Amino acid sequence: MPCTETVLRGRGQELNLVLPEPPTPLGTYVPAVEAGGLRFVSGMLSASEQRPVWIGRVGAELTVMEGREAAQLAALNGLAVARAALGSLNRIWRLARLTVHIAAAPDFGEMHRSLTGRPTYWRYDSRTAAAMRV
Q: What pLDDT score was predicted for residue 130?
């Protein structure tokens, strides 16, 4: 069953989320491309109005909650790009893969707690999470 814009809006209201305008690429890349009937969205940052909202490492400069908020904003930016590319989120049936990268303090061991910002209103088949302790 597709995730309709109506369902997304309803779930977004429950969670007090608003889909932002799609971010303008910060480099020379295409924000979304279609290949083989699949839509691929480029990596998203936790940015708003061409500026990073959070800068730092989870467990050092950022709290777990700030890490969650950063992940949530990046996910919402990805959905906004998908909607702009497709014309509507009604064309999305499922997320085939979600990749998350987190910059974390060397002694931080709670990456899973920072990943909860990802979209919870869709089931996805595969997730790759990479935490870089720097």
A: 54
